Here is the input.
Amino acid sequence: MDSAIIFDVDGVLLDLTPAEEDLFFLAFEQLYGITGLSRDWDSYRIRNDEHIIAEILERHGRPRSDMTPMIETYVAIVGERLNSGAVAPVQVSGAGQLLGELKGSRMLGIATANLLSAARLRLERSGLWGPVSRLAFGAEGRGHKRETVARAIAATGLPKDRIVYVGDNLNDVEAGFANGVHFIGFSTDPDRLRRLAAAGAQHVAGDHRQTARLIVSLVGCG
Here is the structure.
């Protein structure tokens, strides 16, 4: 395979539902009685689940040693709620078809600010884990999104001009630029798409049919 496509997860492959989002904060409440936390991910110093957990614990005077039980509790809650059907991941329209079309001809992977252990559970339940499983990187041990993307890029072993990163946030635009790969700003929300373009994204897609066409234009037919 002479090219690789790396995807963000939420907003690109899966829609993060309010019910799924609540599970992250439920873990803080169950373990430590911490409530009233901001759901604005951009309000935290680093938009990365591991760092957000550390920041919340720090703000509430909890020791660093609470990180491990917090992460284990959150992942356990996600698994239990998915298995019971209390929550269900929702594919972004066309995501499954896109991965199916790309699978086999290109290296596929993910670079997410979510904990990979939780992202895997959600992608497995939605049937999207298989195509991206061999090149999957998450929040664990990383900082800003550009670091997670850099790790995924290095694992491909490919020249950067043969790699496309697809993301839906401003930090994804920065991660694409910082790593010198092709970047596609994706969103089904026209306002978000305009913000991505204004932030410098040269290629934007409002649906995954357009994503597929842009991938071909950037790295060929595979």
The mean pLDDT is 95.
